[in-house]
Design a protein that fits this description.
By secondary structure, this protein is mainly alpha-helical. The protein has 3 helices and no strands. Keywords: Membrane, Transmembrane, Transmembrane helix.
Length: 117
């Protein structure tokens, strides 16, 4: 897309060409009206493009923020559950920590209870 200031050069060239063919007021008014309409159209097109681009960026960021919050919640729940399970096993093993059979039995129970360990 051309910079907006190049439209001024375009209009200037058209005016100079029309003046070189003779001063025709009707042609000059027509060129000015056409260029004003064109500039207005391009300005509105560019403005709507910028607004839509910003809305798309904002919506995408909000979606990513919601997804990240969901992942944080799921991870927090997983870690809390694992911590509770390990705390329960720790309470059971604190009285008889030297009993290798009890340790193996609790390890097997944890492994079979959930796929977390």
């Amino acid at each position: 897309m051309y910079p907006i200031w190049t439209l001024g050069l375009y209009v200037r060239n058209i005016v100079l060409i029309s003046l070189s063919h003779g001063l025709n007021l009707r042609r000059l008014i027509l060129v000015l009206a056409f260029s004003a309409t064109l500039i207005t159209f391009l300005n509105s097109y560019y403005s709507s493009y910028q607004v839509q681009k910003q809305q798309l960026i904002d919506k995408t960021l909000n979606n990513h923020k919601a997804y990240a919050a969901k992942l944080v919640s799921a991870t927090d729940n997983f870690l809390l559950t694992a911590q509770q399970q390990l705390a329960y096993v720790g309470k059971i093993l604190e009285d008889d920590f030297n009993n290798q059979g009890l340790i193996n039995a609790e390890a097997d129970r944890l492994r079979l209870q959930t796929n977390s360990f």
